[in-house]
UniProtKB/TrEMBL annotation:
Domain Protein FecR C-terminal: 282-348
GO MF annotation list: sigma factor antagonist activity
Organism of provenance: Arenicella xantha
InterPro entries: FecR (IPR006860), FecR_C (IPR032508), Ferrdict_sens_TM (IPR012373)
Pfam (any one): FecR_C
Entry protein name: FecR family protein
Domain called FecR protein: residue spans: 141-232
């Protein structure tokens, strides 16, 4: 008597979860060939792949499969009413696709057509899939020097990255987690009381539900948060080894700078000035020249060097376009007596003669 052999349900479900994560971050040509071979090994592979994606609300990650799996478009894009038609189990890629599509939309009676050994495997695989944790899917976003870009996240939140910034986004069943790796970001958060929106920057953490705020970690050993809407909570990240400080609750118009484990709260009379970068400008209101050039450095591949120490504390005020370096240098010369000279990748600032 011939005995049907079925792959281990643990291997199948874990393999499906791994492929979902790979598909989400993008497959290489070699990985596409490997996936095609894996799917052809057993119709259960295709079923498990779609079942995992459906359970974790990640069916959109299967869209790239349409290149060599045309029917994937059906299960991803076209909602279909459940039907009672059972599909006989047969070998081959076509039957695997059909079974996968039906499985994704909840067809009743599919397993009754499988051999008895397959029925027990199917029940076991379904239980295993239900218990298997979704794969961690982390998406990275970044901008180049001088670039500012807005990204729409899957929950409807908006995230605007300032120049030379990078974040990692990971959404789970209980939390929307953002890691600010470097730079400055403005968040317009979609309301969801059941899923807090958490931003971690170094040793500090910012938590919100539905609000608008910016986080900046470009300062030396510091983090800055400005709130324009709603409320946010600022405290130490749970994993940090640094000294803890008391929780800080910010409301619109407030700003906190955390430096050397000490949060300092202030009121922003005009938050739009600090956030002018969102419209392509930087605004200075009497900051010393040393701070001005450090800020401008972020938007250009060139670096500034103040050759005359007496210039470092000159207060500078003005409204400058981030990409217009010539305008800044002209204003410094005409209004503040600061001369400039290009030397390779450096701009040397000195006192204007006379």
């Amino acid at each position: 008597m011939n005995t049907l052999q079925f792959p281990s349900h643990t291997d199948v479900t874990e393999g499906a979860a791994l492929w979902i994560a790979k598909i989400d971050r993008g497959l290489s040509a070699h990985e596409e060939r490997e996936l095609s071979c894996w799917l052809e090994q057993s119709s259960l592979h295709g079923e498990a792949l779609v079942k995992c994606a459906s359970m974790w609300d990640l069916l959109d990650v299967l869209k790239p499969l349409s290149k060599f799996m045309p029917m994937a478009d059906i299960c991803v894009d076209a909602p279909v009413e459940p039907v009672q038609t059972a599909i006989p189990h047969a070998g081959g890629w076509g039957s695997a696709l059909a079974a996968s599509v039906i499985l994704a939309i909840g067809v009743i009676g599919l397993w009754s057509w499988l051999p008895s050994g397959a029925n027990s495997f199917a029940d076991s695989a379904a239980n295993s899939t239900a218990q298997l944790k979704p794969p961690r899917i982390i998406r990275h976003y970044q901008t180049a020097v001088g670039e500012t870009t807005t990204f729409a996240l899957s929950d409807g939140s908006l995230m605007q990255l300032n120049t030379d910034s990078k974040v990692a986004v990971e959404y789970s069943a209980s939390e929307r987690h953002i890691e600010l790796i470097k730079g400055e970001v403005f968040f317009d958060v979609a309301k969801n009381a059941k899923k807090p929106f958490v931003v971690e920057s170094g040793e500090d953490r910012v938590t919100a539900v539905g609000t608008a705020f910016s986080v900046d970690n470009t300062g030396e050993h510091s983090m800055e948060v400005i709130v324009t809407e709603g409320k946010v909570l600022v405290n130490r990240a749970p994993s940090t080894k640094a000294a803890y400080y008391a929780d800080v609750l910010l409301i619109p118009g407030q700003r906190v700078v955390v430096r050397n484990n000490q949060p300092k709260i202030s009121t922003e009379d005009d938050p739009s000035a600090s956030l002018a970068w969102r419209d392509g400008f930087v605004v200075f209101n009497g900051e010393p020249l040393s701070e001005v050039v450090r800020e401008i450095d972020r938007y250009t591949s060139l670096s500034f060097k103040i050759t005359d120490p007496s210039l470092a504390e000159i207060p500078v005020g003005g409204y400058f376009k981030t990409g217009d370096l010539d305008q800044l240098l002209l204003v410094l010369q005409q209004n503040f007596g600061v001369a400039s000279r290009r030397d390779g990748d450096q701009i040397l600032l000195s006192k204007l003669p006379g």
